[in-house]
Amino acid sequence: MKHILLAATVGMLSATIATAQPVNAPSRKAPPVSPPLVVVEDRGGVSALPYYQPLNPQDAGPAQPAAPVPTPRVGMPGEAEAVMLPVRSTHLSPGDEPRRVIRAPGLMPLFLVGDDDRSRAWLRQRRAALQELRAVGLVVNVATPQALAALRRLAPGLTLAPVSGDDLAQRLGIRHYPVLITATGIEP
């Protein structure tokens, strides 16, 4: 029995000595090992790793110069707009929208138009009133940059932006354009 107890004590003592470090020595922990990432889908492109490296500094090791991050190409504003075209609003079509009262405090005046004869006539007729209201125009159906530019020539001084109007149409119950939307009402 004494031999078993002595052998166990010697075994524990030798294991303790083998892993012991001097009191003043810095501890050397092994860095935590993360499981490898699983690639679900790879469509090519540029690696996003440079964006994630600052989020995990313990894996970075000694300070390393950051990899250059490619700067997105920003061209002319017309180029960015051309990429958004064509704009189609499936819930809206040219027609007569009934006039009605709404309560939308704080809503800036805006209007919906498209690239069609009805919208062009409406813009010509109401341009001065829209400018006075400082209304912003949403072009909810337009196919080409040239068509958008033609609408802008009809309404100098007004902001016209190509945007799908489907969400707005559903929220406000609008089915047709051209229409003016203010904090107090919707009018054709």
Written account of the structure:
With 188 residues, this protein is an alpha/beta fold. The protein is 34% helix and 14% strand. The protein has helices at residues 2-19, 49-52, 77-84, 117-133, 145-154, 166-172; strands at residues 93-94, 100-101, 110-114, 136-141, 159-162, 176-177, 179-181, 185-187. The strands form two sheets. The protein has a six-stranded mixed β-sheet with strand order 2-8-7-3-4-5, with helices on one face. Strand 4, helix 5 (145-154) and strand 5 (159-162) form a beta-alpha-beta unit. The model is unreliable at 1-25 (pLDDT under 50).
- Strand order of the biggest β-sheet: 2-8-7-3-4-5
SSE order, one letter for each helix or strand = HHHEEEHEHEHEEE
Q: Please tally the β strands and state the result.
A: 8
Report the mean per-residue pLDDT as an integer: 78
Uncertain stretches of 5 or more adjacent residues: 1-25
Radius of gyration, in angstroms, nearest whole number = 33 Å
Major sheet, described briefly?
6 strands, mixed
Q: Structural class, from helix and strand content?
A: alpha/beta
- Total helices: the number is 6
What proportion of the residues form beta strands (DSSP E)? 5-15%
Distance between the termini: 102 Å
Helix content: 25-40%
Give the overall shape, derived from the CA principal axes.
elongated
